Amino acid sequence: MELKYDWKTIKEYEDILFQEFEGIARISINRPRVHNAFRPQTVNEMIDAMHYCRESPDVRVIVFTGEGGKAFCSGGDQSVRGHGGYVGEDTVPRLNVLDLQKMIRSIPKPVMAAVAGWAIGGGHVLHVVCDLSIAAENARFGQTGPKVGSFDGGFGASYLARCVGQKKAREIWYLCDQYDAQEALDMGLVNKVVPLEGLEEEYVSWGRKMIKRSPMALRMLKSAFNAELDGQAGIQELAGNATLLYYLSDEAKEGKEAFLEKRDPDFEKYPKFP
Ligand code: S0N
């Protein structure tokens, strides 16, 4: 599908497009022949793009999507599924999509999924772990694990259950049924449904809105939402952000300066809040 906005390529890859427009990074799986199934290389490319997104102050919001309008992602490429994982050129079986899931969750910037067509299996989990999901009217969602001999017992089960509730999450996994965009909206699996032709405009509009919001407030909120669910790893993220804010304060700087000047720190002059 022709894009409406003037997206500039950040870096060329084989399996994905990685583009930028007005501070929005667009990571799009470009394997439409297999409904954008991912092989280890696809995932490695997305991980590389996410490293860029994390480091670049110019990237404020990320959107994951898929080329072709018929699929967001159909999960792990079954044709390269080997003994113990998905096999790439190095012949090593991997489940590297789990690393990507963690990156999506921990990057301190909002990540959206823009789902047109199929979001199935590991491709479904990919949209689930994003902060926000916008679906085109042709989107179809589902897990296939127990049908094709796999399962995702991590975010794919527990975070899905947090989104749609335990009963519905168990139904999705146990039955391997497919759900249309309206059903997904009704069960809280996606934030909004729009016509396919309006999907790009919608996620750009959401991106523009979030770019106007305080980056630090969004960062703190994301880690706060994660902390409630992610145990010690979640608390570590939230606490890391608290440390970042503390480092910005004069009180924290006094500690460092006193050490370098070989004197006792004077913390008395800093405000004591009730
Ligand atoms: C998406 C479906 C329902 C679409 O059906 P439709 O429209 O009838 O199209 P098809 O004719 O089936 O597909 C068109 C072409 O695309 C190929 N294709 C589609 N999906 C895949 C795929 N996942 N891998 C490889 N090829 C795919 C078709 O073969 C067809 O090609 P041609 O024309 O040449 O025959 C339907 O396509 C479908 O059901 N697809 C499979 C969905 C699926 O089961 N995905 C895998 C699910 N599992 C995972 O994703 C695991 C992810 C993972 O890495 C993981 C993570 C955490 C923990 C564990 C795991 C784990 O691997 O176990």
From TrEMBL:
Gene3D superfamilies: 2-enoyl-CoA Hydratase, Chain A, domain 1, Lyase 2-enoyl-coa Hydratase, Chain A, domain 2. Its cofactor is hydrogencarbonate. GO terms for cellular component: cytosol. Hydrogencarbonate binds at residues 143-145. Keywords: Lyase, Menaquinone biosynthesis. It is an enzyme of class 4 (lyase). Pfam families: ECH_1 (PF00378). Substrate binds at residues 74-78, 86, 118-122, 144, 150, 247, 262. InterPro entries: ClpP/crotonase-like_dom_sf, DHNA-CoA_synthase_MenB, Enoyl-CoA_hyd/isom_CS, Enoyl-CoA_hydra/iso, Enoyl-CoA_hydra_C. Its EC number is 4.1.3.36. GO terms for molecular function: 1,4-dihydroxy-2-naphthoyl-CoA synthase activity. It catalyses: 2-succinylbenzoyl-CoA + H(+) = 1,4-dihydroxy-2-naphthoyl-CoA + H2O. Pathway: Quinol/quinone metabolism; 1,4-dihydroxy-2-naphthoate biosynthesis; 1,4-dihydroxy-2-naphthoate from chorismate: step 6/7; Quinol/quinone metabolism; menaquinone biosynthesis. The keyword Lyase applies. GO terms for biological process: menaquinone biosynthetic process. Belongs to the enoyl-CoA hydratase/isomerase family. MenB subfamily. PANTHER family: 1,4-DIHYDROXY-2-NAPHTHOYL-COA SYNTHASE, PEROXISOMAL (PTHR43113:SF1), NUCLEOSIDE-DIPHOSPHATE-SUGAR EPIMERASE (PTHR43113). Converts o-succinylbenzoyl-CoA (OSB-CoA) to 1,4-dihydroxy-2-naphthoyl-CoA (DHNA-CoA). This is 1,4-dihydroxy-2-naphthoyl-CoA synthase. It comes from Fulvitalea axinellae.
